[in-house]
Structure prediction request, 287 residues.
Amino acid sequence: MALNSNKTTWRHKFRITIYNDHTFEEIWQARFTKWGTFILIGSVIISLIALTTILIAFTNLREFIPGYPDGNMRRNIIMTAYRLDSLEKELQIRDQYFNNINAIISGEEPNDFQSIQDTLISYENITFNKSAEDSLLRIQIEQEEQYNLSISNLEENNKEKNIINQHFFTPLKGMVTNSFNPVDNHFGTDIVGESNTIVSAVLDGTVVLTGWTLETGYIIEIQHKNNLISVYKHNAELLKDVGTVVKAGETISIIGDSGELYTSGPHLHIEIWHNGTPIDPEQYIIF
Prediction:
């Protein structure tokens, strides 16, 4: 009997009414049961918990939680991880570079070594479509290059007599934006060009290094005769592997703006080293 009475009480309705104190006019009223009141309070609590969880998960309010890192700390952690990863790759590339140099000097084939490309950037959509204007431009450039000596006349007794008879192929036709300046540790020349433009080797040689660094992006180095080394930086994609023998004018990469510290748009940074000393590319190449 008492149990049935309890069940009935949960279903009884209770009225909350608000009256005007002066006129006793009924302004607002609401009817509730104990069960309905329990469901309403439970729904409000669940909604508050869900709303709080969403605000903490998807807004910056979580940074006010004690012990949770703020935005600057997270960025510093990510940048530190990138720098450590780049440092490790630089050490591997340096060791492999010296091993390849020793192998080439000994007449052996260098080991294949190529860093993993950035998977966040897709290069599958790069297409090369020939047009009538492009064909005419190629013919014009080929005719101009027939008479492009691109080397100043040096005396036979000059220190650079080993490269006096070298004909350097122009790696990229464009506008020079930053010239050779060893005082500012700028050991090459920056040439601006259009996106997806190909980069060519300046001389015959063997690819001795390919890789990626945080500062200069995708980089490729070629060993030539007479102790000459050419370096090409900030490429969008490398088209040759270590150990590949290339000819002067052969396509080796695609111009880009890879690297985070020394680039502001698609351009090529080219360096030429002779006997371990950087030389001014503009003295030997007409860009």
About this structure: The longest strand covers residues 228-238. Residues 2-64 form one domain. Residues 71-105 form the longest helix (35 residues).
